[in-house]
Design a protein that fits this description.
This protein has 221 residues and is α+β, with helices and mostly antiparallel strands. The protein contains 5 helices and 15 strands. It has a single domain, classed as Sandwich (Jelly Rolls), CATH 2.60.120.620.
Amino acid sequence: MLKQLQSLNSHLAIQHVEDRSFSTFGRVLPRFPAAEAVDRLKETDIPAGGNVYIPSVDRWENDTFRQHIEKMYYGEMPIQIGYCNGNSSSLQGLEFHKGSEINVGATDFVLLLGSVLDIEEDRFHTKNIQAFYVPEATAVELFQTTLHLAPCKTTGAGFQCMVILPRGTNAPLEKTADDKLLFMKNKWLLSHPENKKFTAKGAHAGLEGPDLEIQWMEPSY
């Protein structure tokens, strides 16, 4: 799968998430209960078009699964467990949070990542993006200094990704903040100017350079 994606995407140096270069952005979590996460994700649907993001799924949070993750990965701080499923294949924007995000997929996907250290005067150039292939059932932690957004699909079937964050992340803001990047609670966002969905909602068009796109494989591969 990775070699095929690399062949299709010569404009990007797609690395495996276990490559040493990923350590700048996060880490793989080998002891995470990934099989259980995948089973839960299989209860969800991939939309016919676009993406769907559900920040919190009650039935995933009211048992020992949530308690285990809070204890092992968040220092017993409260978390929310939701999912992002869909069909995205381009960058569109970048966000960051205060606190790590954990992703694990019931499908393979590609993450387009950057570093908050490369933001200058509320702007980030897409030449600084790095791409990482994440196989199905591989849990990864993205550090709070890592810029990211929705996964990119590797095939026409789309992607399914569990998203774990500090509780309250991505909820509506209670009042206007004096911070042009703060888009929702614990969500700082830089939109690509071509992403009218974000900019129409007031997101800062802070991405410079091309809106990078992942060429995905046809199901017949």
